[in-house]
Structure formats: structure tokens, C-alpha cells
Specification:
231 residues, mainly beta, 2 domains, globular
Length: 231
């Protein structure tokens, strides 16, 4: 049950799982993440294809300060909650999907909720700064970062090795700096990793099936790339 903090301000009631004041219930910052390991997907639709549903693999599930658990996907140039995607073609989230049993659902699976709440209750971090690393998980869905210096006339694809959750709730996609790479394979936490958004050439994230089509010079994929600009 909730218990009182030391002071007697309006923020004196602490949530047992998040260890944060209940007054922060509107806060959607992430405090704990758990990788999705069973292939669950996010379904979405867009205005250009009203009769179709599209799917992308869910990277992880995240526990927010307010106690909500949401699926997370690399989307355009950031990691976002599934129900908050912003598709250029007026896309919208349609739900979570379990292909193995052909089931559509709209709330995080109970086993992931329990995992995240239990972990948040067990671990108590004492951080000095907002930029300290709370967790780092491997990328299990083949995410690639697209780099370009010339408006997509030429591109470079780099595999995302891992994702870091920082104390301020932000997530960073970690790429390999080949000049600093000493050991292979490169694992999460390696000193040669750096955040994608610190590279001024970073543009978007692609999942592995699109990245592989681009690597193979697939005409349809290359045509799609040609429509991108530096926005």
C-alpha cells in the first residue's frame, strides 16, 4: 500500500511500484523497460490505404511514472509509444497483435505488466543526474538507423545494437563507432557505442525487412527512399 514520504508537502504519497509521488500520475516518462521476446506486433492504418492494416514488431514494453504500461516501437526518428504514433499519411494505432494466435488486443499483456511492476519495485536507483543510464537492452527486431548527408541521394545503414533508458525517461538508440570498436560481437554497454541522435547525419529508423530491401537495391524500397527529404 502507499506510504508517506519524509516531508509533508502535497507530494507526500508515494506509489509502491514507481517510488514516485502520486501527484505525478500525469507524468508519462518511462522508468522501466522490458524487451518484447515473443514477436508481438503493433497494428496501424493510414488514410492512403483505408482498407489495409500494417504491422511492425514491438521492441519493448515500458512502465511510465503514472503506472501505465505501453508498447514501444522505433517510429520515424524516435522510439514512441504504440498508441501515440504520428504517421505522415494520417496513420493511427489500431492495437497490439499476437500473430501466433491471431489475436488483437489493446492493453499490455499481463505478464509484461507484472514483470515491469515487480522490477520497478525491486530496483531502487540513486542517480546524481538525469542522464545516468538506468537500463540497456539489446535491439531484438533488427532496427537500422538511416544516415544521410545529402538529402537521401546517398544513404548509410547502421544496425542499432541496443537501447538505453536514461534517468530522465528518454531512450537512446546505440550505434557502433567503428573507430572505437575493439571486440566483436559488439554487445550492449560496449564503449564503442554512441547515441544515434548525436550523429548529425541521422535521419530515420527502419526495421530489418525494409533495411534488407534497401541493401538489396529493391526497386520499390529505393523508390520510397527517393521520396524522402531532409525534413
Amino acid at each position: 500500500m502507499p506510504h508517506s514520504a519524509i516531508d509533508h508537502s502535497h507530494d507526500n504519497v508515494i506509489d509502491i511500484f514507481t517510488r514516485r509521488p502520486l501527484s505525478e500520475n500525469s507524468n508519462t516518462n518511462l522508468i522501466r523497460i522490458a524487451p518484447e521476446l515473443d514477436g508481438l506486433e503493433m497494428l496501424y492504418s493510414n488514410a492512403e490505404n483505408p482498407d489495409k492494416l500494417f504491422s511492425v514488431k514491438i521492441l519493448a514494453w515500458g512502465l511510465r511514472v503514472n503506472g501505465e504500461v505501453v508498447g514501444l516501437v522505433p517510429w520515424l526518428d524516435e522510439l514512441v509509444a504504440c498508441d501515440e504514433i504520428n504517421d505522415p499519411l494520417n496513420g493511427q494505432w489500431e492495437g497490439y497483435y499476437d500473430q501466433g494466435v491471431d489475436e488483437l488486443f489493446f492493453a499490455a499483456p499481463l505478464h509484461k505488466v507484472v514483470e515491469l511492476e515487480t522490477a520497478a519495485d525491486y530496483y531502487e536507483y540513486q542517480c546524481d543526474t538525469d542522464r545516468e543510464i538506468i537500463q540497456e537492452i539489446p535491439d531484438t527486431i533488427g532496427t537500422h538507423a538511416v544516415l544521410s548527408t545529402d538529402g537521401f541521394h546517398s544513404i548509410t545503414l547502421k544496425e542499432v545494437v541496443s537501447w538505453r533508458l536514461l534517468n530522465d525517461g528518454t531512450m537512446e538508440a546505440m550505434l557502433i563507432d567503428e573507430l572505437k570498436m575493439l571486440n566483436t560481437p559488439v554487445l550492449p554497454g560496449d564503449g564503442c557505442l554512441y547515441p544515434a541522435d548525436k550523429n548529425e547525419d541521422f535521419r530515420y529508423f527502419f526495421q530489418h525487412h525494409i533495411a534488407n530491401k534497401i541493401k538489396a537495391q529493391d526497386p520499390e524500397a529505393m523508390a520510397a527512399i527517393s521520396l524522402l527529404d531532409e525534413s
